[in-house]
Amino acid sequence: MKTHLQVISLVFLALALAGCRSKEKSQTTRQPSPAAKAQNVPPAPPVLPQTPVNYESDPIYQQAQGLSHSDIQKAMESLEGTIAKAPDSTSNAPYYLLLGRLKKEFESCQLDPASSPLLEPAKQCANFVDYAKSYPNEYFYNEVGGDYLYGGFQFQELEKRFPASPLAVEAAYEMTLLSQGGECEGFLDCYVENGFGRVREFLIRYPETSHTAEAIKRADDAFRKTLWGDVWKTEWTEIKDPNKASDYYDPQNLKKLVQEYEELAEKLPVKSRASCWETVAHYRGKFGEKDRARTLYERILKENPEYENTDEIRKQLSALR
Questions:
Q1: Are residues 71 and 107 in the same domain?
Q2: Is 148 left (phi over 0), alpha (psi -120 to 50) or beta?
Q3: Which of 100, 103, 145, 304 has CB atoms 3.0–4.6 Å from 155's, for a disulfide?
Q4: Of the candidates 202, 205, 230, which has an alpha carbon nearest to the alpha carbon of residue 214?
Q5: Whole-model pTM?
Q6: Which of 183, 211, 246 is the C-terminal boundary of a domain?
Q7: Residue 242 has pLDDT above 70, yes or no
Q8: Which residue, among 273, 292, 153, 255, has the nearest Cα to 212 in the 3D structure?
């Protein structure tokens, strides 16, 4: 029989072991990074975006996909009916993805039905406006264009319900491809921000996926297609001094976007940073920040020696010296 002292000793031992386990558990809990908190962007959950997901062979998915061109509304109704039976079932994740894509495709009925991939588009698109109005959580009215645009509801639901699924990455990238609506009305930084903003958020959350290269290309294009080269001239205005504001240009806004891109580049895999740095360095040079531009060009040569544009980088470095 255990003595009173032995019982007390055993109780203290059990409490100590429980405390150790609690401490170990707290130390291994995944915490959001300070950078993510500062940007107010939620950290992405642990996912395996490169893991193949064999959803296209699923019979329900195949049926809806096959039906989508001949009767897109019936295809969407089929997916909605399946999802409604078990909205939180992981097996339904592919249906959310396909349904979102079909909702987006249906939006194209307003632009040019004749070029739509749908069979008999004139017939299938006839009631699109009524359909969009009946789904106010999914479509919004774009006053500038006078049309209804899909807002990505199913993609958002997929990410929210299945954050650890590889398909959450696909849904997040689909969000960057949606129509934005509105109008920049000639304000140059607005065009840059519209092209850069969505892919920036995606890359912060998912810096290394099969979409990384394309997302970076789109980010570069957002800057380079609007203001690039030795002369900043567009159909709206000519920017003779990149540091001087004009009617359609605010240098502070552009500098903010450039700074955000430079900070984003540091979060990307090293192999993916070169073109980002080249874009940022160009603007640093145009703003007269030659030391910062030089540092970025040197980092490209040092950390990405296989970058395809190294000859141009050396040329730019020589000019800065």
A1: yes
A2: beta
A3: 100
A4: 202
A5: 0.82
A6: 183
A7: yes
A8: 273
